[in-house]
Design goal:
Blueprint lengths: L4 E12 L2 E13 L4 E5 L6 H8 L7 E6 L2 E2 L8 H8 E5 L10 H6 L9 H14 L15 H13 L5 E5 L7 H18 L2 E5 L3 H4 L4 E6 L2 E7 L3
Parallel strand pairs: 3-8, 3-9, 6-7, 7-8
Antiparallel strand pairs: 1-2, 1-4, 4-5, 9-10
């Protein structure tokens, strides 16, 4: 079976003034469909750069990035937004909800540019909120929800278009431990029961322990792969 994500010989270089800084050094990594992978490492190790490459938010200086069967390193800047909309669900540390919209309307936003009817959109929104345990909060605005509930809304928003891959950047970084545990269990469920591939950057070892695999980075290189014992 072809992996859901294949990174082959990835080099990423940024230009700062007249200086070129290489932040990823020939990195290769395969992630299987349905895996829940935590990427860990010190600040500056290249975690977020790696996540951005997987999500099609950035392109490598050299090497191949294959996600969902597509060579996304070969897609143009005009093609990438449509590709991301089809394949990627984003979950960030800060929930990025629109404060003037209800939870249900926030979840609906990714569907507004699709060909779905309003009835079909409402049905998908209701199903996504049900899945994250917020069916009774659809009419609440973000300031009427706790931090954990707001993050669940952001996960429902990522879910509503049914992407195969979730990229999560410190998704529990702004939450108390109890709320964080609920979010991590939700991500586990999406991987285990829904077959979603989840790639999560985190500094938190307790969060990483919920993943099926931990990938450790240092200075732009992979230094360790740890699979969780079942």
């Amino acid at each position: 079976m072809t992996p859901a994500i294949q990174l082959n010989g990835i080099v990423k270089t940024y230009t700062r003034g007249i200086q070129k800084v290489e932040v990823l050094h020939g990195l290769s990594l395969d992630i299987e469909a349905g895996e829940f992978v935590a990427i860990m490492g010190p600040s500056g190790s290249g975690k977020t750069t790696l996540l951005n490459l997987i999500a099609g938010l950035d392109t490598p200086s050299s090497g191949q990035v294959v996600v969902a069967g597509d060579r996304i390193d070969q897609l143009s800047s005009g093609e990438l937004p449509a590709w991301r909309a089809r394949h990627i669900g984003f979950v960030f540390q800060f929930y990025n909800l629109l404060p003037v919209l209800t939870a249900g309307r926030n979840v609906e936003v990714p569907l507004l540019l699709t060909q779905l009817t309003s009835a079909q959109r409402r049905q998908r929104v209701a199903a996504a909120l049900q899945l994250v345990g917020l069916a009774d909060r659809a009419e609440h605005k973000p300031n009427e929800l706790s931090g954990g509930q707001q993050q669940r809304v952001s996960i429902a928003r990522a879910l509503v278009a049914d992407p195969a891959l979730f990229v999560c950047d410190e998704p529990t970084g702004d939450l108390d431990r109890e709320s964080a545990e609920g979010i991590l269990q939700l991500l586990q469920m999406l991987s285990r029961d829904r077959g979603k591939t989840i790639v999560m950057v985190t500094h938190d070892p307790l969060a990483a322990n919920h993943a099926t695999r931990q990938v450790h980075m240092d200075k732009g290189r992979l230094v360790d792969n740890v699979w969780r014992a079942e």
